[in-house]
Amino acid sequence: MTSPTLPFEILDNTFRYLSDNIYGAIEHHIKHTDLFNCSLVSRDWRAAALPLLWHDIKFSCGEKTVWQNSTPPNDQVWPRLSDSLVGERENASPGHIDRSSYLRGIEMATNHVFKRCVGHNLTAVVRILELLSPSQLRRIEFSLLSNFSEDWESHIGVLQMILLFLAQNIEDFTFFDKGNVPPDFEISHSIFPRTKTDSILKNIPKSLRTLSLRAENPIERHSDMATIPADCEHDFLNLTELRDLFLFNLRIASDQMEQSLQTWHPDFHTLHIVDDFCLIRSSLVLALADHCRNLRSLSLLRDSGIVESDANPSEYSLIHLIDSLPHLEALNLIFVATLSNWFLARCASQSDRLQHLEIEQYGDQLTGEGVVDMSGWKTSLKSIKIKSYRNNNLSLKLEMSNSFVDNVLLECKHLGVYAFGFNFRSHN
């Protein structure tokens, strides 16, 4: 008597609760996750689990691995895996769907600080990539850390291969330049601090819905960044399907960004910019207000070492922004402007969808004194954090008006977390 089974749709929906995005295919097998164990129960369960087990693969090429110390080293894992997947494809019977056909996301992380990359690791990765179809992938995440220029050239070559031949339907792309510049690299005067990484931007897919670009260690970012002219020939941000954009420490001119944002999807809703002295200006804020009316989350952040400048967004531009964005739910302004109670009063009375507000700045004008009308925040605000420092000095902390604090706590019915001045707590 055969044991009863469940319909595929029920198994699929159930297994999705077990499919954790932090694990790729290899981690599922090595750690014997619940999803992996379910795949061993029966053929039906395996058929439902395989697309989830092999949805993502994470290549860790270098000295460190994300797995436990007891697992095989990287120079054994990837050649063995590539042999297995290639052999499965070559010996597959008609109609058989092999494991590599389920792949939709690729993460590749390098970590070569003290020694060169093992060459056959990269060869194994390329063998696996060659099994994929041009329209198969949906997500790419690439993070590179190496002190060896030869490694950079080879890994950038792999990324260029993916972008040229396997990115037909890519929706989510992350590139993280996370290392120091090797001595034999020419310093770039455009988007990234390394010359050779800029070439990937020319091949960024136009199908992207989410784009994240990050440079960990920009060269002389505080003193030199604002004077470096951006390469205006780059049109990589002209993305008609873009909904979410995250930029960290990149050299992009504000006027270039203002032109590009006019091409983004009408439902563009998330923008996060960190530490870009060239980009965060009044003109960009005004352009966002005029062209990104469905923006829901905006974060503009600079390092605390960058003091007030004429390039900072004006208070007027930020007030115009909150007046123009009826769907704004989260606003983070960290050392990008010097705001006063004028901004706070306008925000409290007008931003009726705002759930999260965080402001940190130099200046002594943001105390909340006289801000009484909380009608905008009354039914929506869940968290608020405001910190100000006098005289561009992080040790001179400014306290908020007690009447303002009391009024917020009284009026905002859904407030959960707040920090006024330097008292942080949860609100019951």
UniProtKB/TrEMBL annotation:
<dbReference type="InterPro" id="IPR001810">
    <property type="entry name" value="F-box_dom"/>
</dbReference>
<dbReference type="Pfam" id="PF12937">
    <property type="entry name" value="F-box-like"/>
</dbReference>
<feature type="domain" description="F-box">
    <location>
        <begin position="5"/>
        <end position="59"/>
    </location>
</feature>
<protein>
    <recommendedName>
        <fullName>F-box domain-containing protein</fullName>
    </recommendedName>
</protein>
<dbReference type="InterPro" id="IPR032675">
    <property type="entry name" value="LRR_dom_sf"/>
</dbReference>
<dbReference type="InterPro" id="IPR036047">
    <property type="entry name" value="F-box-like_dom_sf"/>
</dbReference>
